[in-house]
Design brief:
The structure is a single chain. The protein contains three helices and nine strands. The mean pLDDT is 85. Strands 1, 2, 3, 4, 5, 6, 7, 8 and 9 form a nine-stranded antiparallel beta sheet that branches. The longest helix has 19 residues, at 2-20. The two termini are 41 Å apart. The chain has helices at 2-20, 82-92, 176-183; strands at 22-26, 32-39, 42-57, 63-77, 105-115, 121-130, 133-146, 149-159, 188-198.
């Protein structure tokens, strides 16, 4: 009888802990990713939208983890006129870049969020899966919760080579022009996140 009571009490405590945790849903209309892939002598930049996202908080009021789905077909460049931007957008969707027909979504899984001191700055660690390739990511974010709304902002960089984001899916060393073109693109793509969550 005592053993049965202990099991019931344990299950009850787990249920209380689960209920105390809070999940905030990403407002996809107010949230976006800004990307900057400028070459060493000019280049392109724009934005990317989300399919969905969520941020979980612990019973103690600390952010615990998050998950996002990115709409890769929403990627838009903003550095030229409309016709010029469309040409860039079409090229970014090809296999040599983001292969959006085969991989229409990218996934971010945030596994660890640690507050820096008593500030609103947090160290964030997780994984980014893009083009079917998963690599770890780490960055610093500013996270502020007020009532039922959470605002988060972060800036980081990703190495395009790790996700096979290149001009050439299969570079040929003897292709001098292609090799030169590839070299004038920076390996790092700047990423800025502006996120709004609601309960």
């Amino acid at each position: 009888m005592l053993k049965k009571s202990a099991i019931i009490l344990t299950l009850f405590m787990f249920q209380l802990a689960a209920n105390a945790q809070q999940t905030y849903q990403l407002d996809i209309k107010k949230s976006k990713i800004l990307w900057d892939a400028r070459k060493t002598m000019g280049g392109h930049y724009g934005y990317l939208l989300f399919n969905s996202g969520s941020l979980s908080y612990s019973a103690g009021g600390e952010p615990m983890g998050a998950a996002f789905s990115l709409d890769m077909n929403s990627m838009k460049s903003t550095d030229h006129n409309p016709d010029g931007n469309k040409k860039v957008d079409d090229r970014l969707k090809t296999d040599g870049f983001f292969a959006t027909v085969k991989y229409p979504s990218a996934i971010i899984n945030i596994k660890k969020i640690m507050r820096v001191g008593q500030s609103t700055t947090f160290k964030v660690a997780g994984e980014l899966t893009m083009k079917g390739i998963t690599n770890p990511i780490e960055f610093t974010a500013i996270i502020k919760k007020k009532g039922n709304i959470v605002n988060a902002a972060a800036e980081t960089k990703i190495d395009r080579v790790k996700w096979h984001i290149d001009f050439q899916p299969k570079p040929k060393s003897w292709d001098f022009i292609a090799a030169l073109t590839d070299k004038i693109i920076t390996d790092e793509i700047g990423v800025s996140l502006n996120l709004v969550f609601t309960k």
